[in-house]
Design a protein that fits this description.
alpha+beta, Alpha-D-Glucose-1,6-Bisphosphate, Chain A, domain 3, 7-stranded mixed β-sheet, 6-stranded antiparallel β-sheet, 24 helices
């Protein structure tokens, strides 16, 4: 329809139509959101059913493979076979044509114990040695021969398992396991076959949606070192996780939209039924003379908040640091914006210089470079100290008196992760301070008016000199140092040698792909090569570090893993011998025996929340001389600077052992520390955010008769003979549990109580105990 020249069109008449349409769309969207929220738990349950099916199918396949090999081996006379291993091997090859490698070893495995493991293979040696302690059926495992050539390895006894005269080591094709996994419907999620590490860093196979949200834990496959992890479908949910709220919003949108459209239709019908009258433009001259009003363009900020939000995923801003996947949630742009945000915070505090270091990950140079560019754009001077362990970054902030530093590190996460640990004004940022950085980026409140200076400095010699000038071993100890190909390999062997120890390096070549095992000493599976190497070399002790060197793991010659809470007892005795009455901090996951040990040594024990940033803040608040976490972080303020440093902690440990007045071995010294029956950290996977909601309900409803409750971080229930803990992880969407007791019966009783209380809050939980 044409309007008369000079006539104006009243667009306000379309407003009810537009508003009604938008409200209808909003209602439909909220209805869809309500369906997604309602289906969230069922979607997770469907994936977990698929996970159970995969575990069962893989276990059946492994049992079939083992039965085939066992049947072939059973045709051999063990005594004859071990007299002529070459002929026996040839016979087995005929009966197992599918075998890709086949070797026979003596019943004592002496040839394995004294092998050159670099050539023989640490994983292979560990599997064979475990045959003597695994009822003759060591777990099946996967062996990589480079690229996509992955095989299944089995060890089968010749003769009765308890008195085997020999052992057959067989490599078989891995394809049947892949076929079994691929035959399972992942129900919209993803199934991951993993080996050895529940964090998923040794992921062997994946089947399903690549975009699914990975969960931390996995269900073990019986008879193997494998587990099956479940990754849940990623539902696009933007509303709060409440079906009622989403449904109410849907009803409102649909109802209001329908009402507005009905009113619009009614008014149109009423207008169209009236007779048309000619419209006389009596005020046309006035309308023509008035110029149209044009809104002034908005003033654009230096960097728009919309651009920043598009570039930065808020999920990477964690409780203790910033962490994400390179190429997905982390990029050069994100690092640059983060540099600007930290630089803007520093400018507000009148701080002008910062230290930047990075670990050995392949993405480190690019991210550290972009981060430095962001600092300089904010007018901050950068001191680049290159590839160093995270504790060296902390050390450099004291050495150069900047009080500010950023370690670009993925810590113990898989190779495709990276992140940032941040110190500003002597304080390691955590929680609200981390979130404040995101808000600065999202709102565009970034300083970009400067050009900071840049210099590169090698601070490693100063770090080594500072440690070795204070810490020395009174007698030489032989130590195996396992760095898991992380950045500690660049410094740890030299530090321990210079304090007077004989060092046997293991995986100390820095390689950001972590080709041997993941650098995470809190996982017992990652310490198996170290245990084998210590036993083979006759070393006094084995020490291991995580990927950035701020955590420590320890094993003895007998193969015992000394958990960090017991190490903290030893450190506390030493520190309190010089600093009586000092405060010693430990986190909620540590053993209940620790408090008594600190009191007996004349100290003041203080339990606190888990998290390296939170512990450091508590040290500053209480002026504590020592702190430690179950994860392996140790914080020495006595004779050091109060930050977590795995390399320095290893040096202090060796100093204590070497200086023992009675000349006892490490095993004898550790035997003086109380040791109960405990579990490692157990994890219950959940969808993002659900772990926090569960803990809110659990804290309100749980009741533990006869126990002392501690709720500073989750819920910990202490009884006279043991304790249990459940807390929400601040880094991944899981519940973390640990149990510790004086004996197995008490441990079982405490687990039963926690199981009953947790299932009362959420009956759908799949508990790992």
């Amino acid at each position: 329809m044409k309007m008369a020249k000079g006539m104006s069109f009243d667009w306000r008449g379309l407003l009810p139509l537009a508003a009604g349409t938008l409200l209808l769309l909003l209602g439909l969207f909220c209805g869809w959101q309500a369906w997604l929220i309602a289906d969230e738990g069922q979607a997770a349950a469907r994936v977990h059913v698929a996970q159970d099916q995969a575990v069962k199918a893989l276990a059946q396949e492994l049992a079939t493979q083992r039965a085939t090999v066992t049947a072939a081996v059973a045709t051999l006379d063990p005594a004859v076979a071990m007299q002529d291993p070459a002929q026996a091997t040839a016979t087995l090859r005929q009966r197992l044509p599918q075998a890709q490698a086949l070797e026979l070893y003596s019943g004592t495995l002496n040839e394995v114990l004294h092998a050159n493991y670099r050539e023989f293979g640490y994983a292979k040696a560990a599997q064979l040695m475990s045959a003597q302690t695994a009822d003759g059926t060591p777990p099946a495992q996967s062996v990589s021969h480079g690229g996509s050539d992955r095989r299944l390895s089995l060890v089968v006894p010749l003769g009765a398992p308890d008195r085997a005269q020999g052992w057959a080591w067989v490599e078989l094709p891995f394809a049947p396991l892949r076929q079994r996994l691929d035959a399972i419907d992942p129900a919209g999620g993803r199934l991951d076959l993993r080996q050895g590490d529940e964090r998923g860093d040794m992921r062997l196979l994946s089947h399903g949606a690549a975009s699914a949200e990975s969960e931390t834990g996995g269900k073990p496959v019986p008879g193997s070192a494998f587990s099956v992890g479940a990754a849940l479908p990623r539902a696009f949910i933007v509303l709060p996780h409440s079906v009622l709220l989403a449904a109410l919003l849907a009803l409102f949108g649909l109802g209001a939209g329908a009402f507005l459209l009905w009113r619009r239709t009614r008014s149109v019908v009423e207008i169209s039924s009236e007779p048309e009258e000619p419209v006389v433009p009596t005020e046309i001259p006035q309308i023509v003379r008035e110029p149209a009003k044009v809104a002034a363009p908005p003033t654009a900020p230096a960097r728009s908040g919309g651009d920043a939000r598009a570039a930065v995923d808020p999920s990477i801003f964690r409780a203790y640091d910033i962490r994400g996947i390179v190429g997905k949630t982390l990029s050069r742009d994100v690092a640059y914006l983060l540099g600007q945000a930290i630089g803007s915070l520093m400018r507000e505090r009148d701080l002008h210089e910062i230290v930047v270091g990075r670990d050995g990950r392949l993405s480190g140079p690019e991210l550290a470079g972009a981060l430095s560019d962001g600092f300089r754009a904010a007018g901050i001077d950068v001191i680049d100290i290159g590839a160093v362990p995270t504790p060296v970054v902390y050390f450099a902030t004291f050495h150069f008196e900047t009080g500010c530093g950023v370690a670009v590190t993925g810590s113990h996460n898989p190779p495709d992760y990276n992140g940032f640990k941040i110190m500003v004004g002597g304080e390691t940022l955590a929680e609200d301070a981390i979130q404040d950085l995101y808000q600065r980026i999202a709102s565009g409140a970034l300083v970009a008016d400067g050009q900071g200076a840049y210099r590169h400095v090698d601070v490693a010699p100063d770090y080594i000199d500072r440690i070795t000038s204070d810490v020395q071993a009174e007698r030489s100890l032989k130590v195996v140092v396992d760095c898991g190909n992380g950045i500690p390999g660049a410094l740890a062997p030299q530090v321990l040698e210079e304090i007077g120890c004989e060092v046997i390096p293991l995986y100390c070549e820095v390689d950001g792909t972590f080709p041997n095992h993941h650098p995470d000493p809190s996982e017992p599976s990652n310490l198996q090569d170290l245990i084998v190497s210590v036993q083979k070399s006759g070393a006094d002790l084995g020490v291991a570090f995580d990927g950035d060197g701020d955590r420590l793991g320890v094993v003895t010659r007998t193969g015992e893993i000394i958990y960090p809470d017991r190490l903290l007892m030893l450190f506390a005795r030493d520190v309190l011998s010089r600093q009586p009455g000092a405060t010693i901090i430990y986190d909620v996951k540590c053993t209940g025996h620790l408090k008594g040990q600190i009191l007996d040594a004349g100290g003041s024990p203080l339990m606190w929340r888990t998290g390296h940033s939170l512990i450091k803040a508590k040290i500053r608040e209480t002026d504590a001389e020592l702190a430690g976490e179950m994860s392996g972080h140790f914080f020495f303020k006595e004779r050091w600077f109060g930050f977590d440093d795995g390399i320095y902690a290893a040096a202090r440990l060796l100093e204590i052992i070497a200086g023992d007045a009675l000349g006892r071995s490490p095993d004898e010294i550790f035997a003086t520390l109380p040791k109960g029956v405990s579990t490692p950290e157990l994890k219950v996977e959940m969808v993002e955010g659900r772990n926090y909601r569960f803990m809110m309900n659990f804290r309100a409803k749980a009741a533990f008769e006869g126990a002392t409750l501690i709720t500073i971080d989750g819920v910990r229930a202490d009884w006279p003979d043991g304790w249990g803990l459940v807390r929400a992880s601040n880094t991944t969407p899981v519940l973390v549990l640990r149990f510790d007791a004086d004996n197995a019966a008490a441990l079982q009783r405490i687990q039963d109580v926690f199981r009953e209380q947790m299932l009362a809050v959420d009956p759908s939980l799949q508990l790992p105990f």
